[in-house]
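Annotators were shown the component list below and the corresponding predicted structure, then asked to write short factual statements about the assembly.
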Amino acid sequence: MERQLRYLQALREALMQEMRNDPNVVVLGEDVRQSLRGITKGCLEEFGPDRILDTPISEAAFVGLGTGAAISGLRPVIEFQIGTLLYVAMDQLANQVQKLRYMTGGQAKIPVTYIVPGSGARPGLAGQHSDHLYSMLIHCGIKVLMPATPYDAKGLFTAAIREDDPVVLFAPSAVMGVRGVVPVEEISIPLGRAELRRIGTDVTVVASAPLLVETLKVATHMEQQGLSIEVFDPRSLLPFDHALLESSVAKTGRLIVFDDSNRTCGFAAEVAAYAGESLFQYLRAPIVRITRADLPVPFSTALDKQVLPNAEQLEHAIARVMRYNPRLQATTHG
Amino acid sequence: MSHLEVFNDPMACREAYRLMLLIRRFEERVIQLVNTNEIAGTTHEYIGEEAIAVGVCSMLDRADVIASTHRGHGHIIAKGGDVKRMMAELFGRSTGYNRGKGGSMHIADLALGIYGANGIVAAGVPIAAGAAWAAKIRKTNQVAVAFFGDGGANQGVLHETMNIAGAWQLPMIFVCENNQYAVTTPSIQSTAGPGISHRAAGYGFPGILVNGMDVENVMSEVFVAVERARSGQGPTLLECKTYRYQGHFTAEHALKLTYRLQEEIDRWRAEDPLLLWAAKLEERGILTAAECIDIDNQIKELIEEAVSYARASEWPDAEEAFADMYVTCYPGLPARGFEWNAN
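Structure shown to annotators:
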């Protein structure tokens, strides 16, 4: 029987393998020696205190430290305990590490990986711990990965550590406990390659990692109504696999982007804008975005679901794009 | 070379004078070129502060690392930067240090350990600390220097980095160039406590007030700080009191600002670091007035060569705008603002 691992274990395995492969791989972050999140468990014992450091609560400084160390030849892996702490370090991320290679005329090589375990919203954490802010990073041109399965978690984390540019990897809380087949040997998945999780002919649903499981359930459910849903898991948000999206939309003619970040200027807006500009000839219905509302996620479990994207909205959107008829619409609005 | 050797070595003493004068003349020429629009934008001149860059960098090895500030030309020259490639960068040419993508506030030469000037106040400080951290765990014996100003002294990231450097005993030196004004805001109005050098005590390492107009004083204190860093005793903060003779940026004079009195500027000009060092060297029989003039003439020639080089250099190709963003590129990266070949 093929070996199964949880998503979190797959991340840990990738890190341990890369630390064994390359003595320049070092870990920085808050509470990484005790490994509050579990990814770095055992690193201190195996690799010693020089290669894994607990930082003070100083996000801007430790991001800058990673930049300087990477220019000097190390390959730091920086763990963010909470995804929204990226905001605290924004100058060092957007204005420093991401720009220095370009601004030095290509002199600097800055191989840093930022890992954000448990990203996104979880019940009861309220507005300051819940944003899924990958859209903001891709807006700045930072490479961003978001694996949805244990296999991809191992393969993409490995690829991120080996990449010679800064890469942020989001490991959404919604999938951290998922189990799946993961090979014992090293695997590396190239950046910029999406994966079709389900083949269909009627509608393409771009489902970012935290929403993938729900999307597959909806697709199975809709199949009973005779609808064939294609599920597109981007995996790599930047670079994005435009070619695979084009071939999918060319087939289905309908596109829904189901995404866990904010609406305005979000990842879904970018995918929709791309499709509107470049895939217009294939489209048989308007593109639909399902995103978070542009609001802090409220504390109450009675309210949070109003702000977060959900399966019911997806079912509704699928029905809407399927019944869309341009002639009927023209009559209605005329 | 230790500071004691420098003081006993006439060649090294003269070289310190030459570098200070090179910085001064470079900046004076840059002002003219900004005013005639040959250099786009604005620059932040280092005139008046030359003793700090030269005093610090003359105590460093080539492999040691510096992270500079928006007022960075002096640091780059003192660390061995080539004035031709600097000037070409200011002109936005392909032969510039950053191939025309950085300009005045961002000149870098990684081969010389110059991790770049920086346009955001104190943002280079943690980057220097990262170099120090890498040096420590890889046991390379390098030291890293973070330059910042009295303005940068009040940035959070500086304090975060001083805390980490103290806690981890990083081999680095924090060099505060206190020129007493953050743009137009007097440091004494915006800075709490008895002085910036005192802040090091809170992080458990020495903080020393240095006369930043006296290159000898700077060299002496940097020598001690470098020894401490290399022998594993951790960081040092040097607050170098200084003064900028020009405005915050080149075009400031046009704004007719009144935040400084002429008497104050004149008082500091009387303590000019170049005059002070030349007088000391003359007294010690190391440098004559005639030699000063010779050095000046050689420098002026060097700078005119740099200007000619920059003027004669090619502008970068249009496609260069899209190069150097990533080590590894992918289809669609970097995204362009318009697709010329779309259907």
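Statements collected:
1. Chain A touches chain B through 52 residues (CB under 8 Å).
2. Chain A has a mean pLDDT of 96.
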